[in-house]
Design goal:
The chain is built from 11 helices and 8 strands. The chain folds into 2 domains: about 10-175 and about 250-320, 3-Layer(aba) Sandwich (Rossmann fold); about 175-250, no CATH class. Helices cover about 40% and strands about 15% of the residues.
């Protein structure tokens, strides 16, 4: 990937925060999403936002499926930017929300996590079943790691569902990212931001399912390690945070991927230490690594102040389109 941060936006922290809050992430006519609710095999639901467009009725266009990051949605700046770029290419676009992220609490005694490849696979199968055209998939941060885990688990059979996949700023080494986000400025800003929504949702889940976990201990959680140990890990079949981070990380299994896969990480991402990123010998022949020096965490702003965030989605979609 070719990327050079503007001179007015120095450093990984600024390149992360400014694009999310201030940079332009939509263009042209206002984006309009149509929501569908899909019933899951375990009696729960997920909400899928489809981008409405003049060619909405055509199921033969390429479909870009985007999996959001931690506590993300179709309103996230990256989701809106990818939707805008997909529309400009005449592609269909869909954003499936992980459970509990669409604005309504899900029903089952579970939520979502970085290694949720079975959920990703179920969603992709649904998209493929209703779509006549080719399916491309990308995932942002947590969603990208889960998408890679799906591609790793399915190997050759993944090609029957999806032509190519991309993970954007994903913590493919969850232990390294988990420790990084729990320290210093990251802990003061990003950890607090995530826990501000995750803890109340978890406590509402406890009201749905009394005795599911220790609510008092969860209220006292001050970092994502503690939250994952009390909530994410036990609810999703992991023994502990360490077990969850080890088994859910995509980096150790990249060589198992058998469809074109792009793994994009800025080397100054505050969440994802550069030393933890995969090297060519980790990746295998189907995996392309893009590791620009700058960009922050899902930032990649360009242009004059306030900037825009279309450049990265354009380059990702250019890469994905090679599989069409």
């Amino acid at each position: 990937m070719q990327y050079q941060a503007p001179r007015w936006l120095p450093g990984g922290q600024a390149q992360t925060i400014w694009p999310a809050l201030f940079a332009r992430h939509t263009g042209g006519p206002a984006l309009s999403f149509r929501r569908e609710r899909w019933d899951t095999p375990d009696g729960d639901f997920v909400d899928v936002d489809w981008l409405d467009s003049p060619a909405e009725s055509s199921l033969e266009r390429p479909l870009l499926v985007l999996f959001h990051g931690l506590e993300g949605s179709s309103q996230s700046h990256s989701s809106q930017a990818f939707a805008t770029v997909a529309r400009s290419r005449g592609w269909a676009f869909a954003m499936p929300h992980f459970r509990g992220c669409s604005g309504e609490l899900n029903l089952a005694p579970r939520a979502y996590h970085s290694g949720d490849f079975e959920e990703v696979g179920w969603m992709l199968d649904r998209f493929k079943a209703i779509q006549d055209g080719p399916v491309l998939a990308a995932g942002v941060s947590l969603g990208g790691n889960a998408l890679l885990r799906w591609a790793e688990e399915h190997g050759q059979s993944a090609a029957a569902t999806t032509r190519a996949v991309c993970a954007i700023c994903s913590p493919v080494d969850l232990a390294a990212a988990g420790h990084a986000i729990g320290q210093g400025f990251n802990r003061l800003v990003y950890t607090r931001m995530f826990l501000r929504t995750m803890v109340p949702k978890a406590l509402r889940k406890l009201q749905q399912h009394p005795g599911l976990f220790d609510g008092e201990r969860l209220r006292a959680a001050s970092n994502l390690y503690e939250f994952d140990n009390l909530f994410t890990a036990p609810l999703h079949g992991f023994r502990s945070t360490e077990d969850y981070w080890a088994r859910a990380s995509a980096k150790p299994h990249l060589k198992r991927i058998r469809i074109p896969a792009l793994v994009l990480n800025a080397r100054n991402d505050p969440f994802v230490p550069a030393a933890s990123l995969p090297r060519p010998q980790d990746a295998g022949s189907y995996v392309t690594l893009w590791q620009p020096a700058q960009g922050g965490h899902v930032g990649f702003a360009q242009g004059r102040i306030p900037g825009h965030v279309f450049g990265m989605p354009e380059q990702v979609c250019n890469w994905l389109s090679q599989a069409l």
